[in-house]
Give the backbone structure.
Amino acid sequence: MISSTINPTDISISGIHLHGKNINKISRTIKDLSGLFSDEKAFAKMDNSTLVYEVESYFPVADGTEGGLFFGITHLYPGKIGDEYFMTRGHLHTITNRAEYYWGIEGEGLLLLMDENRNTRGELIIPGSLHYISGGTAHRVVNTGKTLLSFGACWPSDAGHNYEAIAKTGFSKRVLDVQGKPQLV
Ligand code: S6P
Ligand code: ZN
């Protein structure tokens, strides 16, 4: 086999991780997530350095490029703050009509999808599940399981991320542990 055809883009996926020189990795710890969880007292008791999620992304073109695609894998740890499960910050795309795919790789969780009228629904993420996030839909992932939740994502390189709207008004529903079971409330 000709080696240059094996990995022409300088990245590889091994198991649930991306490797290569063009991979961008970010970590979100408790200190990055203030204001997100409903139980502020429980949040204040958490260790600031506790890792909540990590994102490995492949950006083959510059951020903002029209017509390109980005690819990422998010690893969301299991845990709770009060009764609320660990979750991603959640966002809209800056260019609101840009869509995205998510798919489940490992673990179990819920993808929260909120439309322009603030109606929120949840889709079950499990290994092999595929989720189409249409434009204008705010998206957030919640780990409702007891193990690491890893999911893939593919989105347009000009989509951009708008976190402010979600930081201000949140989603209209939260996922809480109600008597040992995850519920959208
Ligand atoms: C990017 C894609 C994911 C998220 C990641 C973290 O459009 O949706 O890579 O960035 O899951 O979530 P958040 O809401 O903190 O960006
Ligand atoms: Zn997105």
Summary: The radius of gyration is 17 Å. The first helix runs from residue 40 to 44. The chain has one domain: 11-184.
